[in-house]
Write a structure and sequence with these properties.
Elements (H helix, E strand, L loop, with lengths): L5 E15 L6 H7 L6 E15 L2 E6 L6 H8 L7 E6 L3 E4 L12 H11 L4 H15 L14 H14 L4 E5 L7 H16 L3 E5 L3 H7 L2 E6 L2 E6 L1 H12 L7 H5 L2
The protein binds adenosine-5'-diphosphate (ADP) and magnesium ion (MG).
The site of adenosine-5'-diphosphate has 12 residues, from strand 1, strand 2 and helix 2.
């Protein structure tokens, strides 16, 4: 079935979370809970998603908050186990998820590179070899000695992006973090993503920045309520999405401009 062209193949993926129902603590409930587990509700974050990512493409993943984008990337990254369905990944995965959760804030940038590298399974020698590649991406070498808690979100992005790219992944998963970088660094990061794609790797990019999705994605998948609502050419899917959620909502600059 796999001819080496597909980096990611997801079929009929369903992911359920068991959410604890919030209830006020009455004496009766406290007592009955001693003998019974908390009531749980099943929340289906993904309800039958099938997709693939080929070598040489940047796939945009869009959808309103809560539509399942982060859950999907986390299942592909192997952080979450699928409840049903199959996920096959052919190649090394690099991931850039929420910047706050990826780092140990008390440790320096350098220590975080070693920590992340060893969590990804690399040896000290391999991480040392990757260091110049991270430093080239980060550009702010002096900051590598400073604890990450002192970093701005832009600096955390640089470090996270540098680490995600340092070990030559074949699939890169990027969840909503590009906006944290300043404009010049965003240009550099997107250029890096395109080079990465052109060298035969694949990218899944979650973003609410519709202009960036339009300029950089080869095609787009629209998730709504845990299902694929539409997929196809970037312009087609974006136009359908924007006409549904309203053009205002697709332009993040409106949020800050006070209009
Ligand atoms: N760890 C979790 N535990 C329980 N529910 C979760 C968890 N992660 C996500 N969800 C729920 O799954 C749905 C999809 O969330 P998510 O994948 O984060 O969406 P998106 O990234 O598109 O905003 C939401 O209803 C969210 O509340
Ligand atoms: Mg998300």
């Amino acid at each position: 079935m796999n001819d080496g062209q597909y980096l990611v193949e997801v079929s009929n993926l369903r992911k359920r979370f068991n959410v604890r129902r919030e209830q006020a603590a009455t004496l009766k409930r406290v007592v009955t809970r001693l003998f019974r587990p908390y009531p749980h509700e099943a929340l289906w974050a993904l309800e039958g998603v099938s997709l693939s990512v080929k070598r040489g493409e940047i796939v945009g993943l869009i959808g309103v908050n809560g539509s399942g984008k982060s859950t999907l990337l986390r299942v592909i990254a192997g952080i979450y186990v699928p409840t049903e369905g199959d996920v096959v990944v052919n190649g090394q995965v690099g991931a850039l998820f929420e910047l706050e959760t990826g780092f140990s804030l008390e440790l320096s940038g350098m220590d975080n590179i070693f920590l992340s590298g060893s969590l990804m399974g690399y040896s000290r020698t391999q991480i040392t070899e990757a260091l110049p590649r991270v430093a080239e991406m980060v550009e702010l070498e002096e900051f590598l000695q400073v604890p990450v808690k002192a970093y701005s979100s832009g600096m955390k992005f640089r470090l996270g992006f540098g680490i995600a790219m340092a070990f030559d992944p074949e699939v890169l998963l990027v969840d909503e973090v590009m906006a944290a970088a300043d404009e010049a660094f965003q240009r550099k990061a997107y250029r890096r993503l395109r080079e990465f794609r052109d060298s035969g790797s694949g990218v899944m990019l979650v973003s609410h920045e519709m202009d960036a999705v339009r300029s950089h994605c080869d095609r787009v998948i629209w998730l709504a309520d845990g299902k694929i609502r539409a997929e196809g050419s970037t312009d087609e899917v974006l136009d359908a999405y924007l006409s549904e959620i309203g053009p205002e909502a697709g332009n993040n600059s409106n949020i800050n401009s006070g209009r």
